[in-house]
Specification:
Strand order of the largest sheet: 1-2-3
Radius of gyration: 13 Å
Order of helices and strands: HHEHEHEH
Number of strands: 3
Largest sheet: 3 strands, parallel
Distance between the termini: 10 Å
Shape: globular
Oligomer: single chain
Structural class: alpha/beta
Strand content: 15-25%
Number of helices: 5
Length: 91
């Protein structure tokens, strides 16, 4: 699958999530990188994880208490790593 198709698919999945629509988990089981561990990441990461996504948080300090607590609050598969590594691991 090319990157354009992935981008369009991610946009559609995100819009459906915002609208409260549920798609089959098979369509949502992708790895999403979220750069940062602040308010936006805390709001989006757990929601995407609830929909079946694996979440990789990109942080300047992936071993910080803030990053570890966010990973712990995120259900399913979640991890924290550097920002560059997170971006390279995303689908």
């Amino acid at each position: 699958m090319n990157s354009t198709a992935i981008s369009v698919k991610n946009i559609i999945n995100s819009l459906c999530l915002i609208a409260g629509l549920l798609l089959p988990v098979q369509l949502l089981a992708e790895t999403i990188a979220i750069i940062g561990t602040g308010r936006v990441a805390s709001a989006l990461g757990p929601r995407f994880a609830e929909q079946g996504h694996k979440i990789i948080y990109g942080s300047r300090d992936p071993n910080s208490n803030k990053a570890r607590e966010l990973v712990a609050r995120t259900t399913g598969k979640a991890a924290a790593t550097t920002q560059a590594a997170a971006a390279s691991l995303a689908d």
